[in-house]
Amino acid sequence: MRLAVVGLPSGSSSTGSPRAVSATQREPKRSLSPSDHERFERTLLPHLRAAYNLARWLTRTPEDAEDVVQEAYLRALRFFGGFRGGDGKAWLLTIVRHTCYTSRRRGRVTEATVGLDEAMEDVEDDALGPEELLLQRASGAAVAAALQELPVEFREALVLRELEGLSYKEMAEVSQLPIGTVMSRLARGRKRLRRLLQEHARGGPA
């Protein structure tokens, strides 16, 4: 199942670009060779929009998202000498995610997390039925509004899968979680999203 989710929350510019990162803004602890700088730009700069998209959904504010992306790219630049190839997008999003959660621990961002009732919730992904038809018919704005109400763990899983198109393996790499946990969060996130859309369609919580 693929969700028709818009790329950015309301209040974000669909035409503007995230704040660009320059290698000269802060001197990295370990200098890179000119060829490594070129490889950095070629490997990671194409994923600037994806980095901002993830940060924007996790932090919920464009200002915090820009700060997170700025810091994440500087971290990536600092440690790029140790990057041995592979999936540059997943590697970068791992850093973005870590930076977001570090900001939360510092008290910059406050988020709802998954409670015990959600951990015990049935994770079975229903077959096509009235709920899935509701998802297919919901507008992008309605889905985006419902997505913002989800706990950050569910929102993260949906953004990585539905917006950025990551595989389960890539999601597990970014989230640093077992694939089974990633799949469980994604299923529960989809189920909660369907429930929220139903509530919104009825005009409020049941």
Please outline the helices and strands.
Elements: H1 34-44, H2 48-59, H3 62-79, H4 88-105, H5 116-119, H6 130-137, H7 140-148, H8 152-163, H9 168-175, H10 179-202
Helix pairs in contact: 2-3, 2-4, 2-8, 3-4, 4-9, 6-10, 7-10, 8-10, 9-10
Task: Give a brief outline of the structure.
The chain has 206 residues and is mostly helical. It contains ten helices and no strands.
Describe the structure.
Helices cover 60% and strands 0% of the residues. With 206 residues, the chain is mainly alpha-helical. The chain has two domains: 34-105, Rna Polymerase Sigma Factor, Chain: A (Orthogonal Bundle), CATH 1.10.1740.10; 116-202, Arc Repressor Mutant, subunit A (Orthogonal Bundle). Helix 2 packs antiparallel against helix 8, helix 3 packs across helix 4 (88-105) and helix 8 packs across helix 10 (179-202). Residues 22-29 and 112-129 have low confidence and may be disordered.
